[in-house]
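thread: overnight batch results

M.L. [08:02]
morning all. the overnight job finished for the chain we discussed friday. pasting input first so we're all looking at the same thing
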Amino acid sequence: SGGGAVLVVQCSTIWVEVEVPRGDRLWESDVGKAFDWLGHAWADALDSLGLGPAVVHSGALVRHEWSERVCFVGLGSGEVTVHGRKVLGMSQRRSREGAVFSCAAYLHLDGPSLVQLLALEEEDRARLALAVEDRAAPLRAGVGSSEVESALLGCLSGYPGATG
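M.L. [08:03]
and the structure it wrote out:
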């Protein structure tokens, strides 16, 4: 969807896609604001599991020299941080019919493996790995994907117009 790289590893990455048809109560024509409600649902879910305090970013994109290469180094509208480190990345794809939001959170974040997959000089890989470590975080150890997904579904069901 045009953002930086996200490493998706079975049993280490929670990947959720949410579809919002145009005209739905949750539809927002402003691309930046469209993430807000979903970010708040994620934050509520994480807080309900004791994984917070989760903070939803609002406002302009927070760029870093490596944010175009790796999603979790930058911070966009609706994305979620805990203790200042990004724990949820989001993107969206839009068409005439609506939008699909892709959401990623890590149970285990292996920044060095991610940067090894990118076409970078060794010195740049080391700098990027440090940026990932400094700016991104996995969810707290001991929580499973099914717990997170159940909590998110519970929070989503509270939004008007949301369906399972």
